[in-house]
Structures
1.
Amino acid sequence: MDDFIAARSQMALSLGFHIIFSCIGMVMPFFMAVSHYKWLKTNDEVYKNLTKAWSKGVAIFFATGAVSGTMLSFELGLLWPKFMEHAGPIFGMPFSLEGTAFFIEAIALGFFLYGWNKLNKWFHWFTGMVVGVSGLASGILVVAANAWMNSPAGFDFVNGKYINIDPIQAMFNNAWFSQALHMCLAAFTATGFAVAGVHALMILRNQNKEFHLKAFKIAAIFACIGALLQPLSGDISAKDVAKRQPAKLAAMEALYKTEKPAPLLIGGIVNEKDKTVKGAIKIPGALSFLAHGDFRAEVKGLDKIPENEHPPVAITHYAFQIMVGIGTLLMLISIVYFFNLIRKRTLLEKRWLLKLFVFAIPLGYIALEAGWVVTEVGRQPWIIYGVMRTKDAVTPMPGIAYSFYIFSAIYFSLSIIVTFLLYRQIKMVPVLYNKTESNNN
Amino acid sequence: MEYVVITFLCLGILLYFLLGGADFGAGIIELFTSTKNRSRTRKTLYQAIGPVWEANHMWLIIAIVILFVGFPHIYTTMSVYLHIPLLIMLIGIIARGTAFVFRHYDAVKDDMQWLYNRIFRYSSFVTALFLGIIAGSLISGHIDTDAKDFMSAYIWGWLNWFSIAVGFFTVSLCGFLAAIYLIGETTDDHDKRRFIKKAELMNIAAVIFGGIVFIAAERDKIPLADWVFKNTVGLTAIILASLSLVLLWYLLIKGKTKILRVLAGFQVTMILLAISYAHFPNFIRLKNGGAISLFETVGPEKTIYSLGLALLLGSILILPFLGYLFYKFKKKEE
């Protein structure tokens, strides 16, 4: 394996892994806090047990997310030293703030997990909230750093030198808001659907129905609100990308030729050699509208961009299709769910709806990963858009393939162990959280 | 602001050694505990580090972020030439971090525990060893930025007698710190005696390995003795460390736990100070006789200013909260 490809694969793998764990670690605390609040208000033991059960999930995911995050902070340098040498001082601001937020999160988690019966109950609840809020803040900050790579700001690049560095301006680059919003909603949607789906499965299996139904309802609300808002944020992102990174937008839609008006392609097989797309459904003018808010506007195609600045089109296009497809599906599920809530139908009778949620367990995360592929692969060949190419940033050390293999093995086994642990947690719910037994930590 | 940032960097590294190091030490202690006592040790250990577990490891992140934002040249030089030991250390961090949490949160306690325990113990050892190797390599002067071949660029920079000796020295220090912390965590007399014994053994090991570090330095032509003994700060630090060693043994026999912790922390701090003071602000010594200094590679002014501000702001938020965490979960011993 080529060192450059190995380095990119390792980075992609590490990020792909970290994203799932950190999203769960950042969203689950909010579910936990809602359940905790309900326990404090209603004194219903089920909510207390639910909070405890979820908090164990959070602990597992937080620890895994924390170590994979530590790993990433080193990997940036291990794999892309030339990038970090220049970029570190420019886009480091969100990272240093993220360090703070993450630290607070870790402390608050310590309080929360070990604070049962030791702290004032509202302070205890508050520490749980702090876990969520600081987790969310870290997420936003890290995405802001990534956004800088897509939309470099806060420095002047003159004769190969990076001068007039302004880290604050770099942090508030043009892409930070749209990217962070999209990411946060995605995290809530994906985690919400995954959690709701798992509990739906248990309801369908007639296990601890009361416990799982309460859990399902909390998670489903977050999931569905997220899924309904996501298209709006997607629209903001699309317009933003059209303005800043026309190459990425063109690759997302496999738009090889500049068109006016430009159609939106759904599906299709991309042939990168012939620069054609076969078998796609075309919606006339829709891409023009998506990108510029006008059905007749011109959309820049890849023909307007130098060949050596083209991102891999097929991957970007497929990933984009997967993301949008799943997003639409989840939005429809949400509409059905809300419709049911308004009509006051009892969920337990609607087994098909629960089955739909079970089906959706992995979907949110697939969409989330696909979205990251769109933004990262779509940025290629640049590591700092328009300034530094990815291949110029890679480490001079040979043999990266081996470290890629090692990390693949590690992440693979970690995923298996974590899945296995969750399976066991869920299996043990009837044993651990019987109503009679209240304290079992 | 430069000084603020550098202070935080030193503080981050120091606290990682003291707190994170003690966590590694906990695994090391477990490794060297007889099978029949292991589950008791494990329980005490969990009570001791459970609540502060995650927080202890944040110091590494703080230090590394300061390096890559404020001193990118140092960060990238380390990443390139110490790629392999860093990688091994990271694998160790991942393995022990996850194993520690998994073994506690696995809802079913069965044979899997055997696996988690093994991973936790061995990876604690490896992580501490490589942390020491990395620290040793930075000052060993073996890092060769002009190297033309693979071995001298990526291997000999860290695979030398001195670095490895520092690695084992670090392992014994971590074990020592952990044993000292653990003494105060248990109320059981039998356990207490066991931990005191461990602390004594680890301390002896640290002294022996400390000696080996000097021998290895001599062999690799590193003027370690000059750094430590030829300036007042280094000399004072080493004298204080030795004096506290005597005091420490006395208190150990008496079983005074609280002051022991402070003293052990003080001792390790003094050792770090003695080794590093002589070449401050140089962070990495190179084979060609040059060095990479903190002051010369410091990032642009605006970056340092905002980094320093972020750190100050962060510590206003973090320190009271962290202090309360330690207070709340540590006060129970009385």
2.
Amino acid sequence: MNFFLETLIGGLLAGTMYSLVAIGFVLIYKASGVFNFAQGAMLLFSALTFVSLHEQGVPFALALLLTLLVMIIGALLIERLVLRPLVNRSQITLFMATLGLSFIIEGLAQGLMGAQVRALDLGIEDIPLFVGEVMISQFDLIAAAVAAVLVALLALLFNRTRIGIALRAVADDTRAALSIGINLNRIWQIVWAVAGMVGLVAGLLWGARQGVQFSLSLVVLKALPVLIIGGFTSIGGAIVGGLIVGAAENLAEAYIGPLIGGGITPWFAYFLALVFLYIRPAGLFGDRAIERV
Amino acid sequence: MRNPFQRTLIGALFALGLQSLLPTVAQAASNEQFVPMATYRVGAYASSGIPWWAGEIDYFRYINEVEGGINGVKLVWQECETEWSVDRIVECYERYKGGLNGAPTAFFFTHSTPGSYALMEKGAADRIPLIDGAGGRTESTDGSVFPYAFPLLLNYYGQASVGINYIAQREGGFDKLKGKKIVTVYHDSAYGRETQAPMALLAQKYGFENIQIPVADPGNEQSAQWRQVRQIKPDWVFLRTWGVSTPVGIKTAARFGIAVDRIIGDVWAGSEADVIPAGTAAKGYQALAPFPGGAEFEIHKRLKQYILDTGKSDLKDPAYFGKVYYNVGLINAAIAVEALRTAQTKFGHRPLNGEEARWGFEHLNIDAARLKASGFEGLLPPLKLSCADHEGGGAARVQQWDGEKWQLVTGWLQADRDTLRPLIEAKSAAYAKEKGITPRDCAAEQ
């Protein structure tokens, strides 16, 4: 029983790390209907920028602020150079643009800051905590707390500010939002900047766990099943989806893995996502598309 | 319609152009040996690749500029970026198997086990030796079936065996292995699964419990695996991961209370890139080192004097001089140079083709005296290849991470090659049967 509980709790906590990545996708999808393939590259770029600055002797807090600034400038440039010329183009065009963008950002990150693996110490000891016989990762607990704070802040942004209301208006109906004078370009700039900030938080936590290196950009592969399960348009869905994926893949690895040779975590998450697609195509919390035919 | 003057002018220019080209090609063909390089300077594995190619290129430059080439034959090389992708490695091979500007290709560094697998039949058909130090297809150690594949130095079976030999040494003898629990946490790929057969054989021989736990690629979340390891309470863990799955494995092991000095990484889980991201959790971690880290060997002194200090190094960051992957490149380049030198004793001091280079590799004998003369003493074990044995050395040292750098903690530990050989021969015989290959008679070729 202890093993089951430990696996379940460990999986849930690991799932919040996936949610952090998924939230970045949700933000951009909500505002523009675009699946931002470059989110992983943004995550890598932010973590690399932070580590590079910190290695040059820039204090932690200042490095964090400077990285935020870099991500905001990056968001403004992306909006001006990539998205604005593509306004009114099809979603697949925008998706392809983000695909190209991901290669540019990855190349730029490695070209400017090098390809070597860097250690990232956030000062969080990864010492296990024991609740009775059950072991819990301190690092994962802190990551879960960060995710909770992030969700609370984003909820405040969306629900209690004019910018948030404008964001929701664009998400609900872009043409209607434009007709009442909402500046779509400004909204996209804000959303990409916020997604960059979320990418920075996720990049720092994942970077602390596995080192800051190119493979950080592959972490997004974990976010896809989370989005399918939680829904592409719900931040709460990203959290719930992450918890489900984390718990399910850990339990599956522990109990089903040994029966079929193990190593099942990556595909099991996608298998689960396929099941959800069959039962609930829009995900648990996603907006159902209703169209007049 | 051009007038006669225009036609004459064009003809003269064309003739001049041809004339200016011909000497270059002829010169290249007469005195240069081409080395194609399937590199990965960008992408997920760039952190390993960049110092690796620097080691290879720096050594080739040293041979050209200090020793005047291999008996006067200069080495020229051309990179093709592959991002460690098999299709691009194959494309690179196809592009350069015929040489460049008249300089022939004598061998092809696959720089990748999947690449070696993909090129196995092409290399044999084109008669180009495929060189993959401490990698490749293990059964290609048997050169009677695989004349053009060379898993040099220490094949995967040998890596398992050296790992077990080191554990036995630490435990106080092979008899102490009986009843011990040895868990192999492996990258769930052809590379990771390659040691399952020898571990089963060695477990049978020494009586230890052999437990295999896979980690699926990329391995950036391993709680489930290490929770299982903790339940097993292993005496030792053999870590056969690759890329990001190594630092994540080390960190997760520490979180689950597995003593890091009871974990032994294999060759490809034993570089600076594997331990630095794991921070303090990696202090005390050990790994097999057929390519030991360190810049204190004689060859490094020479390279520093003639290549690094003169600004000719391919390294952008000199801090990587002597790091594990730099030395991987250095050792690979040195073995290739020695093989070409060997082949020249038979075929003359000229650029060689693949068939001639194969003869050179199969008659390579880097003994203690040659190691000392070439500056590789301590960095490379004596290496003797033959038609039947395309591995040669079958040994590795063990290095331990002290939090700052790798420290070599043993001399050369030899794999139990006699025990492993029947397993290799069984697999190579199965391959020969499947492909309809009649094995060479190596005894007759000696």
